[in-house]
Design a protein that fits this description.
The structure holds 2 protein chains of 2 kinds. By secondary structure, chain A is an alpha/beta fold. Chain A has one domain (4-98, 130-175): Rossmann fold. Chain A has helices at residues 16-22, 27-34, 64-76, 85-89, 102-112, 154-165, and strands at 4-10, 35-39, 52-58, 61-63, 77-83, 130-135, 145-147. In chain A, the strands form 2 sheets. A 5-stranded parallel β-sheet of chain A has the order 2-1-3-5-7. Chain A has a two-stranded antiparallel sheet with strand order 4-6. Chain A is globular, with a radius of gyration of 17 Å. The relative contact order of chain B is 0.12. Chain B is of the alpha+beta class. Chain B folds into 2 domains: 3-77, Roll (Ubiquitin-like (UB roll)), CATH 3.10.20.740; 85-216, Alpha-Beta Plaits, CATH 3.30.70. The longest helix of chain B has 17 residues, at 79-95. Classes of the chains: A alpha/beta, B alpha+beta. The interface between A and B is medium-sized, with 30 and 25 residues.
């Protein structure tokens, strides 16, 4: 059997979903027998590769770099999974949305609450500008499966991965849990 | 009392005249999803979760406010109904700011539970992200409009069980809000009896008892100081 090319990535999130992924414990050993983990924060690949079978995307789309990366992922990946509440709903990172554009939160964080050197950091080409709103992944690219949860528990991550590695469709009903 | 016979999901059912389709279905062991319905108070058909199909009617009808009639043929489950119920839920989630991970009702929320049961794993509509208020002026209770779905359970228990008439709805459409008295801060309400029935009725975390969140753990250390002083200075007669 051909090995499945698995990637994970991380946009506007806290890494909690990846921590939950690591909580799969020894099952990760079983997983590595079936997949090549080709890209993600757990390995040192710099470029998102071509021909990825499954990607788990953690986090909401918050800045222009996320948008570009999301499109690149969609072009190079068969099955895209929104992984966790931030990817599915924008969740906590989307709590800035009602306040208006990014200036309000940047000002709060870097000017109003600054102890020293108040000022909004500007570094063109290094710091990607924030979008007006943090949005769920499926508002930017088509998403094939949704695995909500803050974070999704390891059992549900495993259920989804097992169904994606096998022939069957994802057991969506049992995978739903927000918060 | 006259008895009416009807069919619900191909099952012959009899119910007293004046019974709702929802009541008749539940008596027959047929479950219909609801959000604004609350046992013990009258129904208003606000949430539309309980929409059912009625043979001969092009319209979908809310089971909670439609009375049974002789010979009715009701369907409570169909692809069309499931599609609409999920759409209603998605619209409720998109309309205000429901952030389960940051909500006092996470795990105890009827909106959340309903989303699970109806298979809502994401929201297809754009989140509206309105800027809404949190009213923390009442000494015992709080109201977070971000989490309100306008089911009006709080209004109905306030008027028809407590009889205080504090809670009301102002505005229309997306401007609709639950208000206290004449749209003033809850803490300034002269009619609220602080009975807490609205807190018990709310399906989400919109109405909550204060002092339940981490940031509200205000402590009164002077009580400890008072006790130690009293003990050391032997102000008590044992």
């Amino acid at each position: 059997m051909e090995r499945v090319r698995l990637a994970t990535t991380w946009f506007g999130g806290c890494s909690g979903c990846h921590m939950s992924f690591l909580d799969l414990d020894e099952w990760i050993v079983d997983l590595t027998a079936k997949v090549d983990y080709v890209y993600g924060p757990l390995v040192d690949t710099k470029e998102y590769p071509e021909g990825v079978d499954v990607v788990l995307i953690e986090g909401a789309i918050c800045n222009t770099e996320h948008v570009e990366m999301a499109h690149r992922i969609r072009q190079r990946t068969k099955t895209v999974v929104s992984f966790g509440d931030c990817a599915v709903t924008s969740n906590v990172v989307g709590m800035r949305n009602p306040l208006g554009g990014p200036e309000v939160v940047l000002n709060r964080a870097y000017v109003e609450l600054a102890d020293v050197n108040p000022g909004i950091p500007v570094a063109p080409g290094i710091l990607p500008p924030l979008l007006d709103r943090a949005v769920p992944v499926h508002q930017v690219i088509p998403v094939d499966h949704f695995l909500p949860g803050c974070p999704p528990c390891p059992e549900r991550i495993r259920m989804l991965l097992e169904s994606l590695l096998g022939a069957g469709a994802a057991p969506t009903g049992r995978l739903i849990k927000f918060g | 009392m006259a008895v009416r016979t009807l069919t619900i999901d191909s099952k012959q059912v009899s119910a007293e005249e004046g019974t709702t389709i929802l009541g008749a279905a539940r008596d027959a062991g047929i479950s219909i999803p609801t959000l604004c319905h609350l046992d013990g108070i009258y129904d208003v058909g606000a949430c539309r979760m309980c929409l059912v199909e009625l043979a001969g009617s092009p319209r979908l009808l809310p089971a909670c406010t439609t009375m049974v009639a002789e010979g009715m043929d009701v369907r409570t489950q169909s692809d069309r109904l499931r599609r609409y119920r999920r759409m209603i839920l998605e619209l409720l989630f998109a309309e205000r700011n429901h952030v389960c991970a940051a909500c006092v009702s996470n795990g105890h929320c009827e909106l959340q539970t309903m989303a699970y049961s109806q298979g809502m794993d994401h929201v297809r509509f754009a989140y509206q992200s309105p800027l809404l208020e949190v009213d923390l002026t009442h000494a015992s209770f709080g109201m977070d409009h971000n989490r309100c779905i306008l089911c009006t359970r709080c209004v109905r228990v306030c008027w028809h069980i407590e009889g205080a008439g504090t809670k009301n709805v102002s505005g229309r459409g997306t401007h609709a809000r639950i208000i206290s008295d004449l749209n003033q801060p809850w803490g300034m309400s002269e009619t609220c009896s602080a009975c807490g029935k609205c807190i018990q009725a709310c399906p989400t975390g919109a109405l909550f008892r204060r002092g339940m969140t981490a940031g509200e753990m205000e402590r009164d250390r002077t009580r400890l100081e008072f006790l130690v002083n009293a003990r050391e200075k032997k102000q008590w007669n044992v």
